[in-house]
Structures are given as C-alpha cells and as structure tokens.
Amino acid sequence: MPAKSRQEKPKWFRIWLFKSAILLSLVVLFIVGIIAAGRWGDEYLRGRERYDLPFTDIDCNPPVGMERKTFLEQVRYYASPPLPERVNVLDEQLLARLRDGFAKHPWVEKVDAIDIKPPHHVSVKLTHRTPALAVKFGKDVFAVDRSGILLPRDAPTLGLPVYDIDAPEPKGVGQRWGDANVEEAARKSRK
Fold this sequence. Notes:
Mean pLDDT: 87
Number of strands: 8
Strand order of the largest sheet: 2-5-4
C-alpha cells in the first residue's frame, strides 16, 4: 500500500470543512441581515411623525415671570444653529443639540438634566440666573446676575442694589458686562 502524503486530507475532513464554511457564511449573512434590518427599522421610525414633538411641548422650568411657551420660543431663537419647530425624540443628536441650545439662553445658568423618553416626552431641568444688581447705563437700567452677566431687558430690577456710577456700554445680553467694576459690584451685591 502506497504511503499517503501529508497534504492529502481524508474525504470526511473535506466534507466537514465545506459544511463548516457554508455554516459560517450563513451565520455571517444572518448577522449582516439583522444589522441591516435594524438600521432600516431605525430610519423608518426616525422619519415617523409619531416620534415628533413640537419644541414648545418640551417640559421645562421657565424663568420666574415668563411663560414656558415664550421661554421655549426664545431658546429656539438664541440657539445656534436654530433649533427646529419639531424635534424627533429618536434623533441621536437631540440630547447634545438641546443641551447646547438651552445653555445659550441668557437666563440659563446651567442645564442640569435632560430626559428623553419615546414616543414624545422631553424634560429639561435648568438652573436660571438670578438678578443681583441693577446697573444704570444712560437712561436705562439693566439687571446683571452675581457673575456680572447681562440679563434680558425684561429682567426685574426693582429692589436690587443699584450701580449708578457711569458704566461703559455692555457687551451684550447673556455675556459679562465687560467692566471689572460692574462685575465686582455684582459679586458683592448678593452674598
């Protein structure tokens, strides 16, 4: 009987190898199919109106004296880029976009938490700035918080300590006044 070479495999081994390759190919195709179906389903659901929510329906605590709807319209305005009129709760970028958008509003000191629950619930918890000092500039009186950040025109100034020394023009709403004396007076006003 002639000696078999080491490279020659028995027939059963070749059959087993062939079946294993087919099985492995089927498993890979099955997994790829599940991933593709998941992505298709995600895209299908993402475009559905069922998961859309009007921006003004977001649950949040507005600043004192302001209606929630008005505050949310302002949040959309101050956001850059502007936030849409409707948000999709399945949008993977929604959390980051909301956090950035709310943080740009001059009344918002800190975005504490954002809770998104499909199909249409978004809740935002905020810490708002508190007026600490009234600053006279020309004939107008503006409110700043304890960090010297200029608050919107409608911020209450009644009962606040008044900085009535000629102050330079402020840099803009939601920004530090831009004058060290005003900012120092604001820090000292509410301790």
